[in-house]
Amino acid sequence: MKICDLTQFYSPVSGGVKRYVSEKVRYIREQTERDEHVLIIPGERDEVIASDRARVYTVKSPLISRTSRYRVLLRLEAVEAILMRECPDLIESGDPYQVAWKAVYSGTALRIPVVGFYHSHFPEAYVRTARKYCGPLVTEMFMDFSRRYIRNLYNRFERTLVPSPALGDLLASWGVRNLAHTDLGVHTAVFHPKAFPDEDVRAEFGIPRDRTLLLYVGRLAQEKNTQTLFAAFRELTARHPQRFHLFVVGDGLQRAELLALQHDTSAVTWLDYCAEAPRLATLYRGADLFVHPGVQETFGLVTLEAQACGTPVIGIRGSYMDRIIHSDQTLWARENSPAALATAIEQMSCEDLSKTGARASRRVAAQYSWTQIFVRMFSLYGEVVRNYAPRS
Question: Cα(263)–Cα(237) distance, rounded to whole angstroms?
């Protein structure tokens, strides 16, 4: 079977979607004999890079963010030319904008089944902005438009993959049919709690050994709620000077806020990106506590990776991410506020973090290896291909 992933949510410094695709390619190479993979993404130039049973096509596209390095794929005729050349057995669309519509129309024209992966619950960010600036009437109008848009687009796919049952229930209530739940996973040979002898994150970055080391990995953006994390850390350092240190891996539009926090507290270490999974695993293992402030995550892959490495997670209750937290959430913040998150971190840091992290690591390893995830996913792909009835 030849599978083609088509997405705009991909850049040299992107996170979850890029990891998902790269792990799918690894699974094809290591666990299958004849399957192939094609990836179509926006890039700096038109290019194709071929390797063992995998090809990556980049379509020259304009840059829309210098921090995230995301590009907008506008040359849709180039996408169709690649699909015609490759003739995949199945197309998977990974974003909800113009590329998704192109996947649907090209799939119909070429008689190729198309599935959509609902990676991001994008209406949340827009609704929050509308609520803040436009009031309840405009907010409700936008929500109505979002529901109709999502229903109209995703009902055109043979299946809509969702990484959370609760998110699937929401989309079903909006009228989306053919939903299929699939978890994301972890590369358990890389993300595990056993540290290597030369690993010493504190010594490498000059972090005092008497500090509780907090770690955040992800974009610095409104939709990731990093402003709440930064404000919570300010409050923590005011309550307990010299007790906590924050390590941030990621970049984005809130970089200035992070740099101000670093300057004001002298207790922040920042890496704009970490490309290598083993290096990221070292950072997870080096932290005492992983902090995830997100309230609109569809899955929360970094929280799974942190737990796989034996590092417990603290955050804000009530997101789709709650179901993959494999430790007690009693101490998690119950509201999205800096004070609540600061208190949650403060209280969690007093627990036996090693014991909590070890328990979570065992559970993640048992349930979320990428091999388990892709065995189920490829079975679904096969079912879609076998049952596909081209629309006239």
Answer: 13
Across the chain, mean pLDDT equals 93
Residue-by-residue DSSP string for 83-126? HHHH--SEEEE--SSHHHHHHHHHHHHHT--EEEE----THHHH
Domain that holds residue 152: 2-185+370-387
Q: What does DSSP assign to residue 57?
A: E
Q: How far is 387 from 103, CA to CA, in rounded Å? A: 19
0.70 cut: is pTM over it? yes
Where residue 304 falls (left for φ over 0; alpha for ψ -120 to 50; beta otherwise) is alpha
Q: How many domains does the chain have?
A: 2
Q: Residue 214: is its pLDDT beyond 70?
A: yes
- Do 215 and 310 sit in the same domain of this protein? yes
Tokens describing residue 6: 């088509």
DSSP per-residue string spanning 237-295? HHHSTTTEEEEEE--STTHHHHHHHHHHHS-EEEES----HHHHHHHHHH-SEEEE--S
Query: What pLDDT, on a 0 to 100 scale, did the predictor assign at position 363?
Result: 95
In sequence order, the β-bridge partners of residue 27 are none
